[in-house]
Amino acid sequence: MAPSRASELAPILEQEIVTGTLLPGSRLDETLLAERFNVSRTPIRETLARLAAAGLVEIRPRRGAIVATITIKDLMEMFEVMANLEGMCARLAARRITPEEKTNLASAQNACSALVGTDHYDEYYALNMTLHELIYKASHNQYLMKQTMDLRMRLSPHRRLQVRIPGRLASSSHEHAELVDAIISGNAELAERLTREHVTIQGERFTDFLSTLPPHYLQATA
Amino acid sequence: MAPSRASELAPILEQEIVTGTLLPGSRLDETLLAERFNVSRTPIRETLARLAAAGLVEIRPRRGAIVATITIKDLMEMFEVMANLEGMCARLAARRITPEEKTNLASAQNACSALVGTDHYDEYYALNMTLHELIYKASHNQYLMKQTMDLRMRLSPHRRLQVRIPGRLASSSHEHAELVDAIISGNAELAERLTREHVTIQGERFTDFLSTLPPHYLQATA
DNA sequence: AAAGTTCATATTGTATACAAGAAATCATTT
DNA sequence: AAATGATTTCTTGTATACAATATGAACTTT
After folding, report:
1. Which of B78, B88, B147 lies closest to A143 in CB terms?
2. Residue of B nearest to A2 (CA)
3. Cβ atoms A62, B2 nearer than 8 A
4. A204: enclosing H helix or E strand
5. Which phi and psi angles does B83 have, rounded to 5°?
6. Would you say A72 and A207 are in contact if contact means Cβ atoms under 8 Å apart?
7. What is the mean pLDDT of chain B?
8. B214: pLDDT confidence band, cut at 50, 70 and 90?
9. What share of chain A is helix, strand, coil (3-state, %, to 5)?
């Protein structure tokens, strides 16, 4: 296809937002971006509109665009949905996974667990991502896969808020092992339950509590 | 806020796509749209970009925009996710619904069942929608609610394809009654399971559904 | 000196002009 | 007459110019 400049720019900005190079709340000046990419403001505006629709950018009428900010409440809600989507992936994967996919999943799991006890956190994170994506794929529902990965992307700018709990890596790996077993053995209900528990932060009860709080308790995160 | 023309136009086109005034595959000529709304092509392009990001419009590089077409595979996958999202709404609603919301839900259910046996199909459809939205709201997860309603909107251009099976209205109403009971009595697991079964198109209904599809749904994935 | 108002500046939103690529038409050839 | 190729026309993609609104600074007023 003939790639327009706007469609080339979107992934670049998206990446910078997702990786945290551009922090939530940063102003996205159209003129500056236009100069930086050596294009006019027109494709920049199209790009920003796309990112806004994806939820990564916030466009305030007549007041310019900023990297999307989020409240704690939003974040909790999105994690809750994330747990459910990943749970659905796991459940469907348990029922639909092919023999070849089983092999790939098992080896990804082995590679992951081999890193437990080491200090290769970044590598573990990457492998962890691969493992999860293999599960998404094994659901054999491309729409579901896309939605799940989109939400993951949208959450990623805020992941640094997550606490690094000591020993979390080891227990996470153990949970993965259980989950992979459940999927490979075709236990759909168990796979779903394990995933929900695995992804959910501090238990759903905490979200229950938050959801009952008046809005003004939870203002925007810087 | 000071509404830009583009942000005014998006809902209009969205509505026409959702209601089927603009059918899937229809070309969306920028110049024609610009003349129709008495604006230049610039805001039209922004509008189309937004709708494309929402999945309602398909922009083919250098070849213009059309109302999004969908394959049967896409449709099945989206319905599968829809069943899961609504199931999640029901589960959370069962745990978080307030007394006031219980009252509203019960009366909506009564209004709905009162129409069974009559020929007020459109009215039933509207009330049915209200009932479902009340459940979404009772989940007390606004992000989930938005995602669910977005997907519903995206599916709606294709909803008229659904079969009008004789007696379906009555059995649908019975399922609603069970579901509402489950939510009001706080049975989260049951509410989720009932909803999944309610939304999922399965068995003979699915075959009926397939048989009504126009040929263009059967094309290979674009 | 502080607060409010007014004016200047900068940035967004829209229109128009121009460039590049795709589709359609017409002519030419077999 | 059919098919292929070139030319023309139309549509999209980008740039630039202009209009409208918000932000910030300076000045006046109390």
Report:
1. B78
2. B61
3. yes
4. helix A204-211
5. -60, -40
6. no
7. 86
8. low
9. 70, 5, 25
The two structure tokens encoding residue B33: 């749209």
Tell me, yes or no, if B137 comes closer than 8 A to chain A by beta carbon.
Answer: no
> From the centroid of its chain, how far is CA B76?
14
Strands A27-28 and A64-67 turn out to be antiparallel
Compute the distance between CA of residue B24 and CA of residue B160 in angstroms, rounded to an integer: 12
Cross-chain CB nearest to B143 (options A4, A77, A92): A77
The answer on pLDDT for B184 being more than 90 is yes
DSSP-assigned letter for residue B166: T
C-alpha–C-alpha distance, residues A182 and A89, integer Å:
13
Which band of pLDDT confidence, cut at 50, 70 and 90, is reported for residue B204? low
Residue type, A4: S
Q: Cβ neighbours of residue B63 under 8 Å, at least 6 residues apart?
A: none
A3 touches strand C (CB under 7 A): no
Give residues with Cβ within 8 angstroms of A154, minimum separation 6.
A54, A55, A56, A78
A24, two tokens = 């939530």
Distance from CA of A44 to the nearest CA of B (A): 11
Q: Do B140 and A1 touch (CB under 8 A)?
A: no
For residue A71, the SS3 value is strand
Dump strand ranges (E) for chain A.
27-28, 57-60, 64-67
What is the number of helices (H) and of strands (E) in chain B?
10, 3
- Shortest Cα distance, chain B CAs vs residue A117, angstroms: 36
pLDDT tens string B92-128: 999 999 999 999 999 999 998 888 877 787 888 889 8
